[in-house]
Specification:
Number of domains: 2
Distance between the termini: 90 Å
Largest sheet: none
Number of helices: 13
Order of helices and strands: HHHHHHHHHHHHH
Radius of gyration: 25 Å
Helix content: 55-70%
Structural class: mainly alpha
Length: 408
């Protein structure tokens, strides 16, 4: 990397500092900033989530500590830090203490490839999307190691159930990510944003966006997929043996993961930092990304506090019998249609120079295909539901006839 291409490095070098040392300081500063954003944001997000949940449930939410309850999260942090950190006698101490840290690190590392502005990104990897999938899977490993290292059968069984859910929903999540990657022709995060300068991918492939939204929501274990926190589940799940700050780190990672998913949704389907004047004003680009992410984050909270919890069998059936086949078919159909559009010269290369009008024919065709797929899907679900209801009625009628015959 050339020092002149990094603003901080160029300033330090112009002041007489050695270029190598200037680059090292600039990179170190970048690492600190990228790491600080999610860790500081989570303090505010916890307050926001509690306030939104309270309003949906007709409550006030935090309102005691600080104005509007803004300092409630700090009070909770002090409480957790002053609690005793207990390590079970028979636990694997190294793995047991490392698991909470791994859960937080797995989320923070994702921010290294998120483009905040056209000129500000931790590292612009050519395989940024693949990096995100790989790093995000570390969170599942953290849960598994936490349950196993606790040397508690209830923690281990709880970890098994959570991991079964998380691993299952990673499959449709990956397939949903393949669609914007195909449209952009790159796995680089900046390339995916530049590919949406003419049209957001959401308007081209809304079905993929919905699949990614549901899969990412299930992967974080939030309602209606919050089996981990269900009162009827096995005690407290994988973290039953954790206390104090180590217990709080798991929940901090969960809150960060939800907002990170909202940011990724904004990048993959809603243009990320792109907007009018974004190239000339990096601060405006950062604001665009923040506003899009905030709206998506609110929808996550809305879904969490609106829909009832599903059972584990319903959860896995929904994934393996519905979302996985649908995501595979969606990828194949989009790839096939995209290839036809390229052969007919209707599809245009999606990059920073692509204007809105040039993307309209391609967008219309892809959108119609998505609408047709959605209509066919809903028709199939309606017919399946009707057959299930008819079968239930027939079984009930048969039971009544048998009971009447037995009474005679």
């Amino acid at each position: 990397m050339d020092c002149s291409s990094v603003v901080v490095c160029d300033l330090l070098r112009s002041g007489g500092m050695d270029p190598g040392l200037a680059m090292f300081i600039a990179l170190l500063l970048g690492v600190v900033l990228v790491t600080t954003i999610p860790l500081v944001t989570v303090i505010f997000l916890i307050w926001v989530e509690r306030k939104v949940a309270a309003r949906i449930q007709d409550r006030l939410g935090p309102n005691r500590v600080g104005p509007f309850g803004l300092l409630q999260t700090f009070a909770d942090m002090i409480k957790l830090m002053t609690k005793e950190n207990i390590t079970p006698a028979n636990a694997d101490r190294v793995v047991y203490n490392f698991a909470p840290l791994l859960s937080v690190v797995s989320v923070v590392l994702i921010w290294a490839v998120i483009p905040f502005t056209p000129y500000h990104i931790g590292t612009d990897l050519d395989i940024g999307a693949l990096y995100i999938v790989a790093v995000a899977s570390l969170g599942t490993l953290a849960i598994m190691t936490a349950g196993w290292a606790s040397n508690n059968k209830y923690a281990l069984l709880g970890a098994f159930r959570v991991v079964a859910q998380l691993v299952s929903y990673e499959v449709p999540l990956v397939f949903a990510l393949l669609v914007p990657i195909m449209l952009a022709g790159s796995m680089g995060m900046q390339d995916i944003v530049y590919a949406q300068t003419g049209m957001w991918f959401f308007f081209m492939v809304p079905l993929s966006a919905v699949l990614l939204f549901i899969s990412s929501h299930a992967e974080t274990g939030r309602g209606p997929f919050d089996l981990l926190e269900a009162e009827s589940e096995i005690i407290a799940g994988f973290n039953i043996e954790y206390s104090g700050m180590k217990f709080g780190m798991f929940f901090a990672a969960e809150f960060m993961h939800v907002f990170t998913n909202a940011v990724l949704m904004a990048v993959f389907f809603f243009g990320g930092w792109w907007g009018p004047g974004a190239l000339d004003a990096p601060l405006l680009a950062f604001l665009y990304l923040g506003l899009k992410s905030a709206v998506i984050y609110f929808i996550y909270l809305w879904v969490r506090n609106t829909f009832p919890r599903v059972r584990i069998d319903q959860l896995l059936d929904l994934n393996w019998k519905f979302f996985v086949p649908l995501s595979i078919v969606n990828v194949l159909v989009v790839a096939f249609v995209l290839k036809i559009l390229q052969e007919l010269q209707i599809a245009v290369p999606l990059n920073a120079s692509t204007n809105f009008l040039a993307t309209i024919p391609m967008t219309v065709v892809l959108l119609l295909v998505n609408v047709a797929m959605t209509y066919g899907l809903l028709a199939w679900l309606r017919n399946r539901g009707a057959k299930a209801r008819q079968a239930d009625i027939a079984n009930q009628h048969e039971d009544i006839v048998v009971a009447g015959a037995a009474g005679d």
